[in-house]
Design goal:
With about 80 residues, the protein is α+β, with helices and mostly antiparallel strands. Helix content is about 25%, strand content about 25%. The chain has a three-stranded mixed beta sheet with strand order 1-2-3. It is globular and about 35 Å long.
């Protein structure tokens, strides 16, 4: 059963409370999403570490309930140089 965008967003925000999360259903099938996650907690983290933090927030749902998730991560614009 596919995951709803709101469920993905809620899981990420629960794990990363300051995150601003935008979810886009890429195919309209509830199985292929893009997520833009902006959080000050990402400051100084590598792209791989940011991805791992988001996958951890999803609690093992990648590859099961959630088939594909394209990620874009960033820190708030005022927090980086």
């Amino acid at each position: 059963m596919p995951m709803a965008a709101a469920d993905i967003q809620a899981l990420i925000v629960t794990a990363i409370p300051d995150a601003a999360v935008t979810i886009t259903d890429l195919r309209g099938d509830g199985d292929h999403y893009a997520a833009r996650v902006v959080s000050a907690s990402f400051e100084g983290m590598s792209r791989v570490a940011r991805t791992r933090a988001i996958y951890a927030a999803l609690g093992g749902r990648m590859g099961g309930e959630l088939h594909a998730l394209q990620l874009e991560t960033d820190v708030p614009s005022g927090d980086h140089q």
